[in-house]
Amino acid sequence: MSRRSDGQNAIASGAAEFPMSDPAAISLYELGESLAHGDCSSTDIVQALLDAIARKDGRIHAFLHVNAEEALSEARTADRRRAAGEPPRSPLDGLPVALKDNISARGQPCGCASRILDGYRATYDATVVARLRAAGAILLGRTNMDEFAMGSSTENSAFGPTRNPWDTDRVPGGSSGGSAAAVAAHMVPAALGSDTGGSIRQPASFCGVVGLKPTYGRVSRYGLVAFASSLDQIGPLACDTRDAARVLATIAGPDPMDGTCVDVPVPDYEAALRDVERLDGLRIGLPREYFAAGLDAEVERAVRDAADCLAALGAELVEVNLPHTPYAVATYYLIATAEASTNLARFDGVRYGHRVEGADPIEMYLRTRAAGFGPEVKRRMILGAFALSTGYYDAYYLRAQKVRTLIRHDFEAAFARCDVLLGPVAPTPAFRLGEKLADPLAMYLEDILTIPVNLAGICALAVPCGRTAAGLPIGAQIIGPAFEEGRILRIGAALEQARGPFRGAPTL
Amino acid sequence: MSPSAFEAVIGLEVHVQLRTETKLFCACPNRFGAEPNTLVCPVCLGLPGALPVANREAIRLTVMAGLLLGCEIHRISRFDRKSYFYPDMPKNFQISQYDRPLCLGGGLEIEAGGTHKRVRLTRIHLEEDVGKSLHFETTSGVDFNRAGAPLMEIVTEPDLSSPDEAMAFLLALKQILVYGGISDCNLEQGNLRCDINCSVRPAGSSALGVKTEIKNMNTFKGVHRALTYEIDRQIRVLRGGGTIRQETRRWDDDAGATDSMRSKEYAHDYRYFPEPDLLPVELTEAQIETWRADLPELPAARRARFVREYHLPDYDAGVLTADKGVADYFEAVARSCGNPKAASNWVMTDVLRVLGEQGMEIGHIRVTPEALAKLIGLVERRVINMPTAREVFAALFEHGGDPETLVRERGLGQVSDASAIDALAAQAIEAHPGPASDYRNGKAAALQFLIGQVMKLSRGKADPRLAAEALKRRLGIN
User: Fold this and answer.
1) What is the CATH architecture assignment of B418-474?
2) ipTM
3) Chain A contacts of B85, Cβ < 8 Å?
């Protein structure tokens, strides 16, 4: 039943060779099968991945912290459970995943790639982490990111950028660039990221993996270090849609610790992925604004090809409008920064993390925060504090909230005419390191096609749909109405099946 | 130049800690007096990633306070972030309510200097308390046990015009909040703190003077003294041709004076905006009506009912209803013994006297209402007389227990055996022939002396009524 038939990638086939082969070239699904058949142990998998990290991550820098000892110890525990005949706790039992460095796991560092959290270790598990642990998953390590998830290239990490495994002169995207690169470089089969304005989907697209931004309220944010509370969502980055569905099923669902997490039942996402040979009756909307000027020609070609491919399976393509798209970036940079300016106020050196002493508390705050935060974080906090100031609140924050409502209405109107929307994830493929660093606005515009989804609070999937002539991955974005993760995963799966999963391993 | 008389204009912002089991946004106990930083969790410490979840009971208590004070209840209210940096504030923003508080308007009737006055309220909102800074020789620390405790802020209109009125307002407010079970209003534990806004103006003027704010008062006496000082200070400044600066001042209780807190020259911009981690609080009409039906009887209404229902003098009813605990105790005794007058006499004299002597709250008394009711019954049925009853009460106060058991075990029962009493009467007459003959000669008062002798011989246990009858019979009056 294995779908290990993709000619493009360098996966060794046949469990007999395991663990000599590169284990992370195999999905969570396939690793789970290997465990079930006794072809390998959790310890084999974890050890092989630790070896892969040791071999490759010097060039990629996807990980900020590797839990080598704990992961091996957890793997041995999982192996003992299996040897004792215990049934698996979940499809993820005994399998490793990585966490973005802004997700709290008890006892582990959780530094958000920032100096200001030097020395801080989380004292509690995020809800998603508690659910992963309960499912038997092994926490392999913590991935690099733009500081406090503010950025689109992972260049804003205080600990140096992550590089794109397909071309190490290029960025992996961001802010979940470490998670995307780790999965793409086969250092871990799946990772969690967070998406505030595209931070899961854009790096997934740049690195050629699947990335899912769930509906706001689908996954608990408890334990996710907040950037913009009304926009943040945790979601999976994985080799394919089935793995993404498995991880989502594990972490989704209501949580009494997060009042914004919605009490909507979690459906069987994997069931939605079966029988995707035909898509008759499905209406796919192509937003005109997402194919506008500024879109890279190769990206447009690949996404239109994907649309045609889905049409060939029976889906109907309809053109739709999302007229307020041009205002999304400005709206986002008012709301997200306003929320961030207060969310990041707690990093003051009083209770944890970095502290630079001063003569009085005020001086300590100023020195600590001046030394602890990087320039992009400071830029956004200043912008956000300004937007909330007396006399400016109505003109900026309040007006942004009104535009946000209009953007939400855009999507409601579009979904009256179609079941999902299809477009590019980002206007360009992965750009070069340093290319946009000097121009924050150019960097902000990188997120123009992902931000509207966060503002509307709906769900979207980034799924690989092609390569540029230079071999860089291109992602398609499938956008669904609130709580329709099953629907967008299904369409992603149809595309994977019809086109091949584009899962190949970059040569490193 | 300067007017001959000034009047003060005073408004209060009263912070009241609510009586809830847990804090406002987490499951930590809402309790006073624990070891520093033992009642904390990621949420109230503001650790990265922690999220608030609103405590429904705190919302209910705030709405109850609003209903008791005649406020309008917002069907949809909202929490907001109020940003400022302070070491005792874990997140460097406080979750409070800005433009959609739970309660709007309302008012409270007060009586000061013999006149009645209605003090209007601006609003009541709910917010989280902050931690407590502790300063040691060379370092400082913060205790976050209090951080996140539910705090209700009651803001008045500037309707008060004297320290006495401010005091009367606070006392009346405290009485209502304790009655409603909303707060213990324990001043020693910081359950109730207030900020004072105060200005003065020429008497009869309608324009407001420049106000000063006195922060963080935590005793009623302090409020009275601070206001007395501050009003006098402002009048002196104006009389001397000076002007009042709008500023925040601090009350120094030892010096008996307010002084300027030297606050920075810039005004605070709290940058309020809706708290994105909490959904708006929506209250249905049905929910509010359910809570309204649960409202406790307020002191004034209860006093009137005591007069009506128990036929008590108004003064007695006032004494009994001043404290909710005392009023509850009285009602329990009255219902249990069926004799409100006796219950009232006991509570107003013996119970309140010993509580006063011991500085004790009614809640801690060992004499249960049932025990006192039984004691009253014993007197009514002449099993014991009043002096014995007082002895029994004293014993119950010390050790608790059941009065009937006590009377039986100690053999305190009244001697009601007519022949035994007759024998004692004979003894008394024989021992005191003088008073006996006085009585025979028409000196009625002599009988009291002889009754006293019978009581003495019986060691207090004789039924005085039977003793009188026996004496009269023997002295040939009947």
Assistant:
1) Orthogonal Bundle (1.10)
2) 0.92
3) 345, 348, 361-362, 365
